[in-house]
Amino acid sequence: MSSLSARLLLAFLLPTLVLFGLTGAASYTLARSILEEELGQSLSAIAAATASQVSGERMLTIEPGDDVQGTRTWRNLTRLLDESRKASGLRRMFLVDVEGRVRADVGGELPVGAEAPELARDRRELTRVFSGERAASQVLFTGSDGQLYKTGYAPVLQGDAVVGAMAVEGSAAFFDSLARLSHTFTAATAVALAVLAAVAVLTARGLARPLRRLMDSALRIGRGDLATPVPPEPTREIGVLARELEVMRGALESRDRQLKLMLAGVAHEVRNPLGGIELFSGLLAEDLKAGSATEAASHISRIQREVAYLQRIVEDFLAFAREQPLARAPVEAPALLSGACELLTVEAETKGVKLEVEAAPARLEADGSLLTAALVNLVKNAVQASSPGASVRVTGRSEAQRYTIQVQDTGPGIPEAERERIFEPFFTTREKGTGLGLPLARKIVRAHGGELELSSAPGATTFTLTLPVVLSSP
Q1: What are residue 162's phi and psi, to 5 degrees?
Q2: Cα 71 from Cα 78, distance rounded (Å)
Q3: pTM for the model
Q4: pLDDT in tens, 369-410
Q5: Distance between CA 152 and CA 161 in Å, rounded?
Q6: How far apart are the first and last CA of the chain?
Q7: Exposed, middle or buried: residue 185 (CB in 10 Å: 0-12, 13-18, 19+)?
C-alpha cells in the first residue's frame, strides 16, 4: 500500500504538472506556430514585392559567366536585390529559373548557373510557386552563424508565364527569445513543483503523526490490549476517530471484564456441586466395598469418571478465561521437552505409542509450568491420533535467535475444513473433548511472544511451536 506522503505528493504534483506542462507546451507550440506563419507570410510578401520589380525576360538573359564578366544586366539585377535585401534587413536574396538554376544571388554568393541546394528541402513549396502562388518553407534551417532562418518564395513572371522564383531568407532570431521564455517557464514550473512537494510533505507529516498514533492504538486493541486508553488528538476529524475508538475500546474492555466475571462465576457455581458429588460418590464406594454390589460399584466408577471429566472442563474453562501473568525464569529446553513427555509416558505406553525426544540444548526465559502445559496438550493430541506401534517425535532446535519445537505424529491427519478451525475455542471433534486445549496452548505460546502453527497431511501432522528469544546455550 502506498504511504500518505506518496499519495499527497501525487495529488499535489500530478495536477500541477499536467496543468503547467500541458499549458506551457501548448502555449509554446501555438506561439511558435503563429510566429512561423507570420514570418513566412512576411518573407513571401517581400519576395513578391521584389519579384514584381524584376523583368522575367531580362532575368532569363543572364547566362553563366555574366557574374564574372559583370555584365550590365547582371549588375542592375544584383543591385536591385541588394537594395531590397538591405532595406528589408534580410540575410539573402536570390533568383532561380524553373529548373532551379541561380540567375542572381545576393548574400549567398552562388555563381550564375549553379543549382541551389537549398531548393531540395522546399520542393513542395516551389511547386506552388511555379504554379503562380506565393509560399514559405515549412521548416526552419540553421545558418552558418548558428541562427535560425526561414525562406519565402514568390513567382517571377514574363507576361502571364512563370519563368522563375524569387527567394528571400530572413532571420528567425526571435525564436531564441521564445526558447528563453520557455526555459524560464520550465524553471518556474520546477520551482512551483518543489514548493508544492515541500507543502505536500509537511502536510503529510502533520497528518501522518496522529494517524500513526491512531493506528498503533487500533493495533494494540487488535492484539487484545484493552487496558491502554486511546490518546486524544487535536485535529478535528482525527480527534473524532480517536474518541470513537476510545469508546469502542472501553466497550470491549467492559464486555471482556463482564465475560470473565461470568465465566468465573459459572465455573465457581459448577465446581461446588461437583465437589459434593465427588465426595459422596467416594463414600458410597467405600460402603459398597463391604458388600457384593458389583453393578453399583460400576456405576459409581462411571460417576467418578464423569466427575473427573467435568472437573477438567471447569479447569480448562478457567485457564482459558483467566489472564495468567507469566512467571518467567531460565528454563532448559531439553528438560522442558522431556518433562512434558514424561507426564504422558503411561498414556502412551497404554496405547502402544513410542515417545521420541530430541532437543538441542538452549536456555529459555519462560514460564516453565505454562509451557509444559501447552506441550503436554500437543503431545497428548499426537498420542491420541497415533495408531498402536507408531511413534510421536518431539524435537527442539535453535535457529536465528529462535527456538523451534515440533510435535510430529503419523496419524490420519486433520481434514482441511477442520484445520481452519482447530484453534477456535470450544471447537472439538472428540466426544469427551472440551475444545479448549489447543486454543489455550496457542494463548500460552503467544503470551511468550511466540507462535503455534499446524501443518497436516495423511500420515504426517506437525505442530510447530516457535519461541522468539534464546538467551544462551548451556
Answers
A1: -85, 120
A2: 11
A3: 0.43
A4: 889 989 998 999 999 999 999 999 999 998 878 899 999 999
A5: 20
A6: 44
A7: middle
The answer to whether the Cα torsion of 428, 429, 434, 437 is positive or negative is negative
Residue 332 and residue 396: Cα distance in Å, rounded? 11
Q: Where are the domains of the chain?
A: 4-176, 236-321, 329-467
d(C-alpha 464, C-alpha 449), whole Å: 14
Amino acid at 295: E
Q: Which of 107, 88, 103 is nearest to 156 (CA)?
A: 103
Tell me the pLDDT tens digit for each residue of 416-450. 888 878 887 666 776 556 667 888 888 889 888 89
φ and ψ at residue 60, rounded to 5 degrees? -70, -15
What distance in Å separates the CA atoms of residue 451 and residue 331, rounded to the nearest whole number? 18
Residue given cell 501522518 in the structure block? 208
Q: What are phi and psi of 139, to 5 degrees?
A: -125, 150
The CATH H-level superfamily of 329-467 is Histidine kinase-like ATPase, C-terminal domain (3.30.565.10)
Q: Please state which architecture CATH assigns to domain 4-176.
A: 2-Layer Sandwich (3.30)
The three cell numbers locating residue 102: 541561380
- Structure-block grid coordinates of residue 321: 478465561
CB 80 within 8 A of CB 50: yes
Q: Please tell me the total number of residues recorded for the chain in this structure.
A: 474
Q: Which fold has domain 236-321?
A: Helix Hairpins (1.10.287)
For CA atoms 282, 287, 290, 292, the dihedral sign is negative
- Give yes or no for a contact between 422 and 414, defined as CB atoms under 8 angstroms apart: yes
